[in-house]
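Protein: Endoribonuclease YbeY
Species: Candidatus Uhrbacteria bacterium RIFCSPHIGHO2_01_FULL_63_20
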Amino acid sequence: MIRYELNQSRLKGGRRVKEADVARTLKAVSEALRLRRDTEISVAFVSEKQMRAFNKEWRGKDTVTDVLSFGRLERAEKAERGEMAEILICYEQAKRQAEEMSHSVRDEILFLLVHGILHLSGYDHERPADAKRMFPLQTRILTRLGVDPRI
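Structure follows.
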């Protein structure tokens, strides 16, 4: 099971993500990945300015992105020693993407959360062979959550 810390302190004016949605999403991912051990992640919402800085520093891209994942899913004991994986989500970018694709911000954020956790689990989509592994699993998880996987 994936345990988590959720930091929404940067979100103002009712822009909160329901904790129940996050918990349900992490449970679905845990089951899909058949995780047999407790792992722990941190999920934080950051501003556009912060996301752009992180994206430039870690990916060499001077632009805002929707989600970044750092680290790998680790045993809970390692997380307690500060070796926790982290997912950063830019709410403003997620909102823009949701509006462009005509779906809810909630669904966009759940999509980004699933996508980020799969990256933390070693999945990637840079090469076609990797994408063929990652995207069907992502689709199954999103469908189970009732989120349109075509986001």
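Remarks: The longest helix spans residues 128-145.
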